[in-house]
Amino acid sequence: MVNAFDASARIEGPTTVIDLIGLLDRTAETRLNEVFGAALDGRGGPIVFNFGGVEYINSTGIALVVGVLARARTTGRPVRAYGLTDHYREIFTITRLSEFMRIFDNESAAVAG
Amino acid sequence: MALLRRRSRIPKSVPGGEAPVRAATADVAGDPHEVATVHTEFFLPSAEGNEREVMERVAAAVASLGLSPARLERLKTAVAEAAMNAIEHGNGGNAALPVGVRVESTSRMVTVRITDQGGGTPIPRVEIPDIEAKLAGEQKPRGWGLFLIAKMVDEMRTHTDGSHHVIELVMNRGESW
User: Fold this and answer.
1) Which of A34, B2, B54, B113 lies at a CB distance of 3.0 to 4.6 Å from B102, suitable for a disulfide?
2) Which long-range contacts (CB under 8 A, 24 or more apart) does A7-12 make?
3) Distance, in angstroms, between B32 CA and closest chain A CA?
4) What kind of architecture, by CATH, is found in domain B14-172?
């Protein structure tokens, strides 16, 4: 069953981990920007996206990721990611998102950087 | 009105009823004498979110055609993006206008045709999005759909006859990439 989008943030070591679940499409915009904005306003350090609970990403979702990445770059905060399926890792490579957002195999690696 | 046909290939570094399975003359690329098999044909309203139903119904229709799991996922992404384009841009999000979907196969390829009613405006050419410009705030973050479609499938063809757009997504059978 496909779930509606939600996001939540937690502190892990020097990073803020944002857990994403559900559909990363147009309907994710408000909540993603809300949680990401709070993370940017909070403590410093890298921001780590956990895509492990994301069931579907479309081109609008890609645009949302580009948008938050652009916001992060204005602050100098690095953004990392883990939990992508092989298919979405390929899409992140094709779109070159992976050149601007380091992709890791798991949370411990992403938090350690 | 003449059909305008455009084939797009970029480097890889790049309302609803359902018809029964039947044979059809192959107007697909390849052997013009081979009869294509129609696996499904259906129509859905142009409502937001219906692209996912299109994606799942196409995936079910091609499940037995030997596409690898990775290639099936690529086709699903391309189908969803093409359907979303048809819904949002071709049919303007008007639920009264249907998106048509037809899945055919020959021994060499699987073809998914997605049709909308927006043929009065041409389908844009595929361009490679400039992610650096988008990250710098010089461009809007959007504009990935056609690029993703073209990168996900072996061939993408677009047609317009002035009242309809047709996007054809082709996956060659027997490939492993």
Assistant:
1) B113
2) A7/A31, A7/A32, A7/A34, A7/A35, A7/A36, A8/A35, A9/A35, A9/A38, A9/A39, A9/A42, A11/A43, A12/A48, A12/A107, A12/A111
3) 33
4) 2-Layer Sandwich (3.30)
